[in-house]
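Z., the sequence and structure:
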Amino acid sequence: MDARSEQPEPADDPSTGAAAAAQSGGVPGGVEKEKDIFGRVPKDRPDWSHRRGEPRVFALLWMFFLMGVTGVMFLSVSDAFYVSPSITRPAARGMILTTMAGLVLLWPAVRLSQRPSARPVRSVLRDLFVLLIPAQAVVWPHALRVLADWPVPVLLATALAMAAWALVIGGVIAMADAGPRRQGGGWMLVVLAVVFAGPVVLGLGGGLGAGLGGGSWNGPRADEPRAGWMLSPLTAIVEITRERDMTGTLTPVTGVHWRLIGATGCVGAALCLLAASRGVASRRGGA
């Protein structure tokens, strides 16, 4: 019998295995981990597949949605004999209103149907960047006379109202993801309450707008600011872009509108901060 066959196999050297793992991207056995463009390997994951769908696919779907909204707007005025602001403004108003509906209804419906994010506030801010930057292409072209011919204050207030209400909805999404157990259906009901509670209350009461410093739901004067309409993202767009006098022209956005847009943004920021603190408390409790 060969004496060499009786010799024990050499034990694995831990230092050698660690060195090989380091050279192979941190995976024992020599299988190299996938690296990103900065040369980093993923931590606690086999590859970067968790990044491939987000936010690229989400951004692509949002762009298709905006393109569809724009196409419908131009199709609605294609039968007109001539183009003037009196014809294009209703279509432009519907276009921006549909974009706002996508922000406050479709976005949370998609995110609340997915797995919760490990970093809720960061994910919400990333989504806001993806959503709001392309949405500006829906708002600002309506300063052209061949479209709605809206003045800059109206378009600025529209863009800021979109951002403020998107921040509120983002705060709700972050609150949902920050908790230990998320019930997507329940949080979607919260989103629906945020979007539609204002119109329901105004429709039932009728005098809430006057109590907030503006005209009532069917205010006595068409040029008075109807502050109650600013309590919902959908009616806010109608209020900001509506014709405010009997001649069919637009009056400048009033201080009531600016203050309520700012207050809405503050509510959204407060929700995001609350979600961040809730996430920290949840992680500490789990630890």
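Confidence is low (pLDDT under 50) at residues 1-5, 14-30, 207-220. The CA atoms of residues 74 and 91 lie 8 Å apart.

Let me know what you think.
H.
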